[in-house]
């Protein structure tokens, strides 16, 4: 044991100094060109990816809204000219789900990928259920692979970044330096900005939609109500949902309810937060002070509405169940992932699965007859970090970033086409719509490549199967985007150390009270005492740390 | 040779335990000759003891992080020492009381109901005559043990949950709103019932092994003496189960602070933390999810110390009451 | 109840009708509650994809898709082979190591130090070392990515050892003493008298060990990176995951996701079958009379 630890300490010695500095200056800087841990740098230059060769079905300048495509590109651009590697080896630590990739010897895709990358690509697949534990053992053993998938919403992963396990890439990617890696450069400044840790670049973030979920209604059920498809306010929505529950059963003898699932923020609860315009979890009140969502009047109104909905049978009694398989009823309103809804197996498939059921996107009203209020997501998704030890050698770092650059090629590029689909005729076939369909047998071969970074085009791509809903999709999404706000704390989430360590505990406290009030186990009258409890168990500290972070960021 | 049917069965112990070179101990008090005389025993003990030393005690040294603000990358040497801060964080938490109370209530109900269930089931199955039927039923009752908690809870939801089978039946009689799965008041009984359902069948196995050790001559002799079926169960089968039952009871008492983590975590959203927060879920939300290794380890240490003390006390008590104990 | 075909021991009177009726009712109730979920699991594993997606409670249309998807997978065969090795070799080694230690610790009063060892082992049931120190040990021993990392750390379970020791303590002293007087060595006594007399408990402990090895999951995920060395449970669980949406991931175009429920249920069926197959072989050890037979012979 002693020997193991000593070895580890030696490995960590190089970064110990940085780690110490970072630990104490956490949350003290969030602005551009932070200078807390290393040299000055500029935000990486944004160089958009080449345009697709098909016209968008819809495009919009509204913040939060992305272009919508219904056609698949016909030609593909080359995103990088060079061969990324020069015969070395690049190891990764990457999330996997599903069957692990076929071993290299039997995996033609992997062999081809190695050839294209010019390195021996050696991924370590980490199954999702133990990702955090594996991450911890990886850090503890001191052997940090070259490229590591990082979820900075997880306290343990964030701690790894803070402790200096990963390279500070601020100077390497500063300003025009990043143009050496055009695919890495294909992300806007706001994404870098939001993913900074202590004002420095440690992670290369993925692009992600600001609006990932939207309400979907069962039109076959809603049309039978006195309200119809467009309730104007919370009361009309209530009536609509209640009348659906009163129907009892729907097509195929399926039991139907107004709602059949409730999971706390950011789950289906977000739908009602939009309805009641409750805003972000931490928000500035009229006096410019930071308050928690539960301390607002709108939140209280929302809880009362939900509790009444529960009491009057709008909810399926199993709505709070943690296992999705328990929910077999139909619901007038669901909260679905955009990607699933507009994908090949989205709305069209749902209708096919239950003959008689019809679906459409639903435009949520505001509770008082005005517009809804939507809070946009963190503008970046999963990230990848580079091992601090590997980055000490500049040539190694260049090769690693070259490989990452290749792997994060944007949609519409030859590289991305190969990465996602392999070779035509070998790993995929092209369907009647011109869309590559990966052979089921090749799926597991392809799982080699998932390092978790995507770049460039961030559009909504509607599968031809979902094309009949394209207009309604655009209407609903545009309405959401137009009534959306960014969170005041955007990019500062991890600035509160208390939130990082106690966030889960506070979330549990909140969720427990919220579901308690809705199901009638707790009383809405206790909202104040809940709030006091929440603040005393860490909420106050979180608020103060965020207030300081906002001040430092000059917001 | 044959063993007398009235003594020396698994139920009644001889004073001297059998074991390697079990010669009557000569009255010597010096250590060295005793060790030399028992050298054979050590050849049996040392490999196993070495295993526990290397694979249990060496890694257990890592528990020192209970006194640290530990971070995996910094390691034990690089992490700051914080004294008893992690223990204080646990004890000063306002919710520790709820968590402890729920843990102890559930543990007590388990000991009272879930613990005897496999014994009762084993006796019942043992009393069946047809070997084929017996084996078939044994196989069926073992199987729930292999279902994960997610599935178990899902199945229970379908039967006793809102909109489930029972709720549907009651609906016909005009009783609405039945939902045992979200009934916080009876939740602890529900937990124990789920435990019995899942594990009682599997738990019978060990008792079958004990029953298998009863010489059938003893039943014959009892029957000749005119004992009824009930009397035979009461006077022969049950006593044969006492040693292993005592042992399991003592070990269970040591695990009193550990009640089904996954089972409770999954059901917490339905009944609320007031009813379903136990020590392990408490630590999960505070230590594990927040990346606070120190707090999680401190809680583990506390549980270990309390568990060991409880087992040693239970063992003493068992011996005082005339039982066998573990040692 | 097919009791009529069974030959009743001559010393046993037929139980009264009432007792039999009550017993039958109780047993039928137990069996029904336990068999319902099993039928449900099996039925769902065969559910047609559209029914699984639409969320029916009991499917009426069936398909083999889930099984086909799982059994076609590249690593299932590897996984089965790995698990078979771990289970067979692990169980044998565990039984040997555990029974040896248990026999050595039977006489805590006479053997100096034995009691300390026993208490020390008992304590390991309540203290755990945590993930990181265990991982570091396995790494230090060079067992990472080795199948042995799934066998050696679980070689002796304190619980199983104490239970076996408890049974050893109940063995008839006279028999062992007699053998000793006949001049049998300690190893011979252990191998030829103690172990044969303990068949029922060894069978039970063998089952406990085998099930534990067969279900190896978490350690395999921590210690084995090479997916061709994964045991079957890990491979199977990955299929369950495949049906679950990945947090934070954007779903792209392509195939409809496999219906998670059917895969999950098929995985349970596949993972449990081996235990169903092995169990009847062990059951014969649980029949009365083993001990007496051995003593008489």
TrEMBL record, chain A:
Coiled coil: none
Residues in the signal sequence: 1-26
Gene3D superfamilies: Periplasmic binding protein-like II
Protein name per its UniProtKB record: Extracellular solute-binding protein
InterPro entries on file: Bact_solute-bd_prot1, SBP, TAT_signal
Keyword Signal on entry: yes
Keyword terms: Signal, Transport
Gene Ontology CC annotation, any one: cell envelope
Localization: Cell envelope
Family: Belongs to the bacterial solute-binding protein 1 family.
Keyword Signal: yes
TrEMBL record, chain B:
Topology in membrane: Multi-pass membrane protein
Compartments where found: Cell membrane
Biological process according to GO: transmembrane transport
A Pfam cross-reference name: BPD_transp_1
Principal cellular location given in the protein's record: membrane
CC annotations in GO: plasma membrane
Key words of the record: Cell membrane, Membrane, Transmembrane, Transmembrane helix, Transport
Transmembrane segments: 40-58, 104-125, 146-170, 196-215, 236-261, 293-312
Start and end residues of each ABC transmembrane type-1 domain: 100-314
Region described as Disordered: spans on this chain: 1-30
Similarity comment text for this entry: Belongs to the binding-protein-dependent transport system permease family.
Entry protein name: ABC transporter permease subunit
Organism name: Glycomyces luteolus
Taxon lineage: Bacteria, Bacillati, Actinomycetota, Actinomycetes, Glycomycetales
TrEMBL record, chain C:
Keyword Cytoplasm tagged: no
Chief subcellular location: membrane
Keyword presence, Oxidoreductase: no
Annotated Pfam families: BPD_transp_1 (PF00528)
Localisation per UniProt entry: Cell membrane
Alphabetically ordered keywords of this record: Cell membrane, Membrane, Transmembrane, Transmembrane helix, Transport
Domain ABC transmembrane type-1: 80-282
One Gene Ontology cellular component annotation held by this UniProt entry: plasma membrane
Transmembrane segments: 21-43, 84-104, 116-138, 150-168, 189-210, 263-282
UniProt membrane topology term: Multi-pass membrane protein
Biological process annotations from GO: transmembrane transport
Family classification: Belongs to the binding-protein-dependent transport system permease family.
Protein name: Carbohydrate ABC transporter permease
Organism of this sequence: Glycomyces luteolus
């Amino acid at each position: 044991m002693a020997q193991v630890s000593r070895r580890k300490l030696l490995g960590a010695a190089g970064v110990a100094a940085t780690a110490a500095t970072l630990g104490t200056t956490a949350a003290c800087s969030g602005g551009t060109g932070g200078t807390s841990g290393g040299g000055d740098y500029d935000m990486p230059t944004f160089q958009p990816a080449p345009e697709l060769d098909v016209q968008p079905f819809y495009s919009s300048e509204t913040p939060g809204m992305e272009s919508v495509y219904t056609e698949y590109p016909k030609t593909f651009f080359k995103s990088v000219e060079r061969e990324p590697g020069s015969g070395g080896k690049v190891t990764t630590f990457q999330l996997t789900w599903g069957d692990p990739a076929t071993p290299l010897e039997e995996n033609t895709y992997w062999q081809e990928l190695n050839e294209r990358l010019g390195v021996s690509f050696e991924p370590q697949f980490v199954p999702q259920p133990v990702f955090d534990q594996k991450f911890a053992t990886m850090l503890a053993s001191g052997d940090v692979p070259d490229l590591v998938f990082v979820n900075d919403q997880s306290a343990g992963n964030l701690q790894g970044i803070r402790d200096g396990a990963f390279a500070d890439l601020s100077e390497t990617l500063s300003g025009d330096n990043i143009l050496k890696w055009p695919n890495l450069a294909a992300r806007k400044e706001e994404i870098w900005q939001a993913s900074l840790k202590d004002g420095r670049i440690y992670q290369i973030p993925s692009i992600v939609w600001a609006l990932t979920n939207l309400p979907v209604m069962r039109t076959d059920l809603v049309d039978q109500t006195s309200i119809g498809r467009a309730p104007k306010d919370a009361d009309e929505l209530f009536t609509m949902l209640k009348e659906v529950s009163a129907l009892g059963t729907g097509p195929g003898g399926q039991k139907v309810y107004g709602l059949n699932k409730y999971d706390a923020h950011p789950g289906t609860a977000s739908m009602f937060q939009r309805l009641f315009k409750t805003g972000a979890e931490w928000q500035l009140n009229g006096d410019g002070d930071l308050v928690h969502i539960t301390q607002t009047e709108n939140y209280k109104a929302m809880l009362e509405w939900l509790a009444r909905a529960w009491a009057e049978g709008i909810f399926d009694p199993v709505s709070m169940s943690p296992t999705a398989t328990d929910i077999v009823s139909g619901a007038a309103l669901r909260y679905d992932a955009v990607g699933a809804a507009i994908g090949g197996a989205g709305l069209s498939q749902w209708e096919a699965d239950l003959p008689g059921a019809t679906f459409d996107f639903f435009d949520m009203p505001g509770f008082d007859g005005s517009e809804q209020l939507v809070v946009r997501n963190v503008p970046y998704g999963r990230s990848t970090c580079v091992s601090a030890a590997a980055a000490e050698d500049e040539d190694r770092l260049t090769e690693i970033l070259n490989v990452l650059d290749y792997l994060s090629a944007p949609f519409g590029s030859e590289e991305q086409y190969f990465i996602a689909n392999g070779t035509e005729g070998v790993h995929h076939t092209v369907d009647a719509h011109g869309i590559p369909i990966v052979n089921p047998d090749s799926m597991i071969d392809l799982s080699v490549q998932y390092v978790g970074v995507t770049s460039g085009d961030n559009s909504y791509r509607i599968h031809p199967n979902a094309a009949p809903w394209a207009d309604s999709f655009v209407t609903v999404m545009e309405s959401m985007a137009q009534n959306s706000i960014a969170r005041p704390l955007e990019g500062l989430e991890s600035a509160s150390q208390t939130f990082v360590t106690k966030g889960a505990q506070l979330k549990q406290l909140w969720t427990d009270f919220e579901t308690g009030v809705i199901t009638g186990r707790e009383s809405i009258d206790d909202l104040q005492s809940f709030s006091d409890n929440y603040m005393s168990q860490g909420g106050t500290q979180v608020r103060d740390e965020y207030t300081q972070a906002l001040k430092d960021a000059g917001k | 040779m044959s063993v007398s049917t009235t003594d020396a069965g698994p139920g009644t112990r001889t004073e001297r335990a059998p074991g390697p070179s079990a010669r009557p101990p000569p009255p010597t008090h010096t250590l060295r000759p005793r060790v030399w005389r028992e050298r054979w025993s050590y050849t049996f003990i040392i490999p196993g003891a070495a295993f526990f030393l290397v694979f249990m005690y060496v890694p257990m040294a890592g528990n020192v992080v209970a006194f640290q603000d530990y971070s995996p990358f910094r390691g034990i040497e690089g992490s700051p020492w914080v004294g008893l801060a992690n223990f204080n964080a646990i004890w000063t938490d306002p919710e520790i009381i709820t968590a402890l109370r729920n843990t102890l209530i559930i543990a007590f109900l388990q000991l009272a109901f879930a613990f005897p269930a496999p014994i009762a089931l084993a006796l019942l199955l043992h009393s069946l005559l047809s070997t084929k039927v017996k084996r078939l039923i044994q196989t069926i009752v073992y199987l729930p043990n292999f279902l994960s908690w997610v599935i178990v809870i899902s199945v229970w939801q379908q039967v006793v949950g809102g909109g489930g089978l029972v709720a549907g039946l009651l609906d016909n009689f005009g009783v609405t709103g039945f939902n045992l799965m979200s009934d916080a008041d009876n939740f602890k009984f529900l937990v124990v019932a789920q435990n019995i359902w899942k594990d009682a069948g599997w738990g019978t196995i060990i008792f079958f092994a004990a029953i298998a050790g009863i010489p059938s001559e003893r039943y014959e002799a009892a029957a000749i003496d005119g004992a009824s079926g009930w009397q035979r169960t009461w006077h022969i089968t049950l006593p044969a189960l006492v040693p292993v039952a005592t042992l399991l009871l003592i070990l269970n008492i040591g695990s009193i602070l550990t009640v089904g983590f996954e089972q409770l975590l999954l059901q917490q959203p339905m009944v609320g933390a007031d009813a379903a927060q136990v020590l392990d879920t408490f630590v999960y939300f505070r230590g594990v999810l927040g990346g606070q290794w120190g707090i999680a380890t401190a809680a583990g240490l506390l549980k270990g110390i309390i568990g060991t003390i409880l087992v040693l006390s239970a063992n003493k008590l068992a011996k005082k009451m005339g039982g066998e104990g573990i040692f | 109840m097919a009791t009529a075909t069974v030959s009743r021991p001559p010393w046993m009177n037929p139980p009264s009708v009432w007792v039999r009726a009550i017993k039958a009712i109780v047993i039928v109730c137990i069996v029904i509650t336990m068999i319902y979920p099993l039928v449900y699991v099996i039925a769902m594993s065969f559910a047609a994809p559209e029914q699984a997606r639409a969320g029916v409670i009991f499917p009426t249309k069936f398909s083999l898709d889930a099984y086909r998807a799982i059994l076609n997978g590249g690593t299932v065969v590897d996984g089965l082979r790995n698990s078979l090795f771990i289970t067979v070799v692990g169980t044998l080694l565990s039984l040997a190591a555990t029974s040896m230690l248990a026999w050595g610790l039977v006489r805590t009063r006479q053997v100096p130090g034995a009691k300390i060892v026993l208490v020390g082992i008992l304590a390991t049931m309540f203290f755990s070392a945590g993930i990181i120190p265990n991982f570091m040990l396995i790494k230090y021993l060079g067992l990472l990515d080795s199948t042995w990392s799934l066998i050696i750390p679980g070689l002796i379970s304190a619980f199983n050892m104490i239970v076996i020791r408890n049974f050893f303590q109940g063995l008839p002293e006279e028999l062992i003493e007699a053998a000793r007087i006949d001049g049998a060595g300690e190893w011979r006594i252990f191998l030829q008298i103690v172990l044969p007399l303990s068949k029922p408990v060894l069978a039970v402990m063998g089952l406990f060990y085998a099930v534990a090895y067969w279900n190896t999951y978490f350690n395999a995920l921590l210690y084995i990176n090479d997916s061709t060395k994964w045991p079957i449970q890990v491979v199977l669980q990955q299929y369950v995951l495949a049906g679950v949406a990945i947090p934070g991931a954007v779903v792209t175009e392509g195939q409809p996701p496999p219906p998670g429920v059917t895969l999950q249920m098929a995985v349970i069926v596949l993972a449990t079958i081996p235990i169903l197959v092995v169990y009847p072989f062990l059951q014969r050890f649980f029949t009365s009379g083993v001990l007496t037979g051995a003593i008489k012979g």
